[in-house]
Write a structure and sequence with these properties.
The protein is built from 24 helices and 24 strands.
Length: 858
Amino acid sequence: MASSVMRKVSLRSLAAHKLRLILTVFSVVLGTSFVAAAVIFTSTVQSSFNNIFDNVARGVATQVTPADPQGPGVPIALADQLRADRAELGIDKLQVDFSGPVTIATADGSGLQTGGAPSIGSAYIPPEDAVDSSGWTLVDGHAPSAPGEVVLNNTAAEKAGLSVGSKTVVALGAGTTAPLDVTVVGLLDMPAATGGFVNVQFERSQAEEIFSDGKFVGSIDMSAVPGVSDTELRDRVNAVVNPVDPNDPDAEPVYEVRTGEQVREDQKADVATFLNIFRYILLAFAAIGLVVGTFIIYNTFSMIVAQRNRELALLRAIGASRKNVSRSVLLEALIVGLIGGVIGLGLGVGIAAIMQALTSSSGLPSGGLQVGVAAILSAVFVGVIVTLLSAWFPARRASRIPPVEAMRNSAAEPGAGSLRHRTLAGIVIGLIGIALLIGGIFVTGAGALLLIGLAAVLIILAVVFGAPALSQPVVGAIGRVLQVPFGTVGKLARTNAIRNPRRSAATAFALTIGLILVVIIGTLGASFKGAIDAGVDKQLRADFVVSGSNNAPMSAAVGGAVEEVPDAQTVVAFDIAFAKLGDQNVSLTTPVGGPISDVLQIDMIDGSDAIGADSILISEQVSKSRDWATGDEVTFTSTTGEDVPVRVTGIYEDNPALGDWIIGNQAFDALTPAAAQRMTFVVLVKAEPGVSSAALRDQLETALKPYLTAQVQDKQEFKNSFASVIDQMMATLYALLGLALLIAVLGIINTLALSVVERRQEIGMLRAIGMSRAQLRRTIYLESTYIAIFGALLGVVVGLAIGLPLVHALRHWGLDVIAVPWPLIIGTLLGSAVVGVVAALWPAVSAARTKPLEAITE
């Protein structure tokens, strides 16, 4: 009977205080919406990719690819063997893959940007000969019949401003072939192509020449004759390409043999792995929002309980038990959580739609939003659980209200008195956290990151416990400074801000947690940019850097083109080779052209910086970790399985620009025999004495114009290119953290609005004795500003306390510059004052509208 009565009381209480209900629900909505958005968005992208991959390798019964992705490919001789045995094996059609990365010029001569989608060159296969029936159709023009003719997918042609008959240029992403002059002779309709996908198809003989060394291909596709299943053909082909060695029956297979269905499922799994990582990142930021929201919900229910002291005490006086009272508060929390979760789901759908619209332009496929059971359950479950946990302590506090409180005329929040125990707990936890931070400074490697991570958790917990005691002196000091121009109004605002330290600290902490993360990320970003600037200034002696767009590899022909520039004194191209060192895949670089020391600072510890044809220079880190010294002979294994011995002739100080090892040209050629696979990462250029930078730049840009992706940068531009990447990453992180800051701002609004309701009589009395509406609004503005600045100061101090040791711990990975983002910090403190005023606008207006006589009467 009592439970039924308390349920009615809870429901009527919610209905009677609609504004309070809306504010509480809103704090839940913000926390749950981003969880729902993360699940919906990643499910939508995964579904779109699955729809695309369902059309991949259609008609392919069996596909053969190298087991090692860094291998040279599948031998053409193996394709010939399978073709000769096709009748015995049950092969109908057999198709080899000649393909590679390319960039095609647009109508205005610039490289066509794909937004991250693949840009592939391949051989044109007539539909009647094609194994893969994924569904492209020649819709205009004719097939390429001679070298220099290409067909292009129509979406790429439209974006590039090309049509049948257009003459353009195709630059290769690997090999030593110069850019090709081509004519578009046909357009393809590719239903499965994503937004930015580019496919340039060449006449077969030309594709074979530019995408193969004549010995290897990327893959072999086969269809089966009627009566032979895909799995039967796969097993038969596997027995041919991976014969069992009687001397080593457990040897790893050299080639991977899969059915078309397995190819599709593997591609789906690869995308699912990426999307799961992306989902975890989004959920991590959603968790931050929920942590912030938890404090706001806790603060809200604490205030609600304080405002209902007399009501709850009266219920106790007329027979309600402690359990009845606590359950009534938790019932309200359950209803709020359910409503907030449902509305959060709807808002999450909207956020996911916006994210999909923003990402579809960058090449990601788009489709209908996938609002599945997982998204629905995550939003509602998280909303309910977070709200119930946040309301549990206030519910316990409500159950302890003695009936005698019903006789009093006070609505003071229970438990707002002594802070001794929680402050002592905060001091102890904080000291442990500081000790771990200091330990992290003197430890290197992963151990330092672990110590600093644990320290960060403990310090944030210490702030949670100690902030109420800290808020009184700090907010009081802030108020004393800022109250001066406002006189009595400023003093009253300061008194309001410090009289309930628990509430002030909980309100400020929502802002603190967001700014801690902003300052840590800002410190990391500033330090990374500082390290790059210092490294480039110290190590780069070249006047210009030639690199691929987005720092992607370029064709090895780029270096040769730069060497033809008349006013370039020294040109050094750094080519990339892939090899094995034991069981480990490694990438090596070789300098092609002049001496390295002309274009890069190289500090030798032992030996000479001159690189012999069959020698190698190694970094200090490699020397120590592998126990190598000058004079040692090291054997690398090429992608074709040939051993290539080299001798260590020098050890240099760790240098990010040089990497871990630099190998001689002859050894490099032995490791990378295929011209089609050779790639250049960067070309460094030093001008002839007396030649102006502008003159050399003009010559370089003219020589490299046909290469489309090659960009010419001076030192400052080169530094800026890295800084812009860091800035973009930070902007993305800040945008995600913006959710936490938005919740914090709304939390301040929520707290102030409820505070206005709680202090209605007090506000009425102030108005009755002569305070004007403008003065009352100003009081609320200042109170909010004091609390917001306190939260910002706390966030900045804690963020720097964690961020600076974190940067120091990363010195093991080459981050040897510690930079404090002062503009960000100053902007944060100024912005917090603005946040305080903005957050107080609505509560202040609401307070100013209070009618004095009605408030006093209540």
